[in-house]
């Protein structure tokens, strides 16, 4: 396919570097311009990646831009995505898509009225490890999924992030910040959620920053930092999701799914790769051999070793889907349902009541080895 869609980015913070760096891995897209309310930030990114630095207004009007990637802070995801749609361009948002179901439904209506596409991160579920789990499930190796557990727990961002204030305010917290990776992966593996119940607590009303340059400064905590939830899926499966920024250490696996015929141990959905372990009925648990999925191949240094990082795969799939006239995998429907689940969990934690989902969605199409290879640009 010769046609490439022009990509512009609004928001030139830390995450933008990953998009600009990894975009050349994929076909069908070409990074062309960036914008930020801070023009110095836009010019710096533009110089680094040989792009055009634009004001937000000029980027929205640019004729060579087909899709705008919204990398602003979550609090303004809705407003910026609305501007993009109103300007007649497709939009792809970083997670979380929006912070309320009402916002998401408004964007959906705007997009449908103009025949535009909306996509949203996370796209880590397209990674080789998670698609291997998807294949196990689709082939019936686990039988029907009946239950599972997810644990994403640590001790907050104040120990390493230079400006951690946002993480402890409404619109963030562990469910909205890290939850999208876990909940999106659960939906693509099991299907849509029917209802949720949760308990939420805020053990510490303030945190002390220990990272530079603000070490010793205290910041308020205005959103729950420990939330334990139970998700009932439309297929009848019941999954426990424990999220916390009040835990120093634990020994739980990131995700385990239990089926009638076996158990699968799923690596951290925050990443594209990792080891998948599996057992059939009473047989010993074994690590599955690596399969030839291109989005599971380590390609980036992380800590002391290599990891697979294919951020932008969801954007590339959306661009190709627009040209090919097919649904894209990181879809508005999937993102909106994940928002419904996350905000439902928080609402249940506040009210002590079960919350029934107001949305549903289809599982996105699997991204097998052949389909994943077709996303990638040919090596020169």
Automatic annotation (TrEMBL):
It comes from the Bacteria. It holds the Pfam family GFO_IDH_MocA_C3. The keyword Hydrolase does not apply. The keyword Oxidoreductase applies. Keywords: Oxidoreductase. GO terms for molecular function: nucleotide binding; oxidoreductase activity. This is Oxidoreductase.
């Amino acid at each position: 396919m010769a046609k490439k869609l022009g990509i512009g980015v609004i928001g030139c913070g830390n995450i933008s570097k990953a998009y600009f760096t990894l975009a050349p891995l994929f076909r069908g897209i070409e990074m062309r311009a960036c914008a930020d309310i801070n023009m110095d930030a836009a010019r710096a990114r533009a110089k680094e990646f040989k792009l055009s630095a634009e004001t937000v207004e000029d980027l929205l009007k640019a004729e060579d831009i087909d899709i705008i990637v919204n990398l602003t802070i979550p609090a303004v995801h809705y407003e910026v995505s609305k501007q993009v749609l109103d300007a007649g361009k497709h939009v792809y948002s970083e997670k979380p898509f929006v912070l309320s179901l009402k916002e998401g439904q408004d964007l959906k209506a705007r997009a449908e009225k103009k025949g535009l596409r909306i996509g949203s991160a996370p796209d880590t579920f397209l990674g080789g490890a998670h698609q291997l789990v998807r294949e196990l499930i689709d082939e019936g190796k686990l039988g029907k999924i009946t239950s599972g557990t997810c644990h994403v727990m640590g001790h907050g961002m104040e120990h390493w992030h230079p400006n951690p204030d946002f993480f402890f305010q409404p619109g963030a917290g562990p469910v909205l910040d890290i939850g999208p990776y876990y909940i999106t992966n659960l939906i693509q593996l099991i299907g849509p959620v029917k209802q949720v119940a949760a308990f939420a607590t805020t053990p510490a009303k303030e945190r002390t920053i220990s990272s530079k340059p603000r070490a010793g400064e205290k910041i308020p905590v205005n959103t729950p930092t420990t939330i334990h939830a139970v998700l009932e899926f439309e297929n009848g499966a019941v999954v426990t999701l424990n999220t916390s920024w009040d835990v120093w250490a634990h020994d739980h696996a990131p995700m385990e799914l239990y089926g009638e015929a076996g158990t699968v141990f799923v690596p951290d959905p925050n990443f594209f790769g990792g080891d998948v372990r599996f057992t059939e009925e009473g047989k010993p648990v074994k690590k599955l051999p690596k399969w030839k999925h291109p989005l599971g191949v380590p390609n980036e240094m992380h800590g002391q070793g290599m990891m697979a990082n294919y951020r932008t795969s969801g954007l590339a799939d959306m661009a190709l889907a627009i040209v090919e006239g097919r649904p894209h995998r990181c879809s508005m429907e999937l993102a909106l349902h994940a928002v419904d689940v996350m905000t439902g969990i928080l609402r249940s934690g506040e009210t002590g009541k079960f919350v029934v989902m107001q949305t549903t969605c289809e599982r996105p199409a699997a991204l097998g080895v052949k389909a994943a290879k077709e996303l990638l640009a040919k090596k020169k």
